[in-house]
Amino acid sequence: IAGITQAPTSQILAAGRRMTLRCTQDMRHNAMYWYRQDLGLGLRLIHYSNTAGTTGKGEVPDGYSVSRANTDDFPLTLASAVPSQTSVYFCASSDQVSNTGELFFGEGSRLTVL
Amino acid sequence: GQNIDQPTEMTATEGAIVQINCTYQTSGFNGLFWYQQHAGEAPTFLSYNVLDGLEEKGRFSSFLSRSKGYSYLLLKELQMKDSASYLCAVSDSNYQLIWGAGTKLIIKP
Asked: Which of A72, A77, B8, B22 could form a disulfide with B88 if both were Cys (CB 3.0 to 4.6 A apart)?
């Protein structure tokens, strides 16, 4: 089934640990995004990539890094997790060639940092 | 700064009509999106408006007035499965999406 796959779906992590959230898409979309979603707040963009080999910072990039070695994969790394990074993380992709810019989301990764 | 406002929560009755409003102030405008998000799930695309007017898609319609910085999502013949959060998002001058906090819609029998 075509779409976006995120892993893990849920994780409890000790503060200070390193964590990588994986994201893979098979739609050959050129653009990919990482968002965090917190109660009472809108989706906030962490990092994005408009095409393989390029990345950019979003609204809340501090404490996170990404890479885009190929079209399909866009992992998000927390180098040293802190409790404020407890959130639900969504990976998304879009085909920027289309005129709607519709985003396709993964199912989310729920991260708890203790 | 950039801002998207929508009501936090709304309640409606099964079979009725509900209108969810969204007002925005952004640096530039390249379209407005509505997404639906059921609890514990990912957002899914509902509609896209870039020109003023009403776009109808089955039971759902979306309206845009760029001069007023205003949009609404209209849901007709409400069903229990429509209970979800509805997210308004605006594409700004850099084609980055600015998201509202979402409106939680509760449908009662």
From this structure: B22
- Show the 3-state SS of chain B: CCEEECCCEEEEECCCCEEEEEEEECCCCCCEEEEEECCCCCCEEEEEECCCEEEEECCEEEEEECCCCEEEEEECCCCHHHCEEEEEEEECCCCCEEECCCEEEEEEC
Query: Any CB–CB contact under 8 A between A60 and chain B?
Result: no
Can you tell me the distance from the alpha carbon of A42 to that of A60, in angstroms, rounded to the nearest whole number?
Answer: 12
d(CA B87, CA B102): 4
Is there a contact between B43 and A103 if contact means CB atoms under 8 Å apart?
yes
- pLDDT at A5 exceeding the cut of 90: yes
| pLDDT per residue as tens digits for the range B43-81 | 999 999 999 999 999 999 999 999 999 999 999 999 999
Phi, psi values for residue B75, rounded to 5° = -115, 120
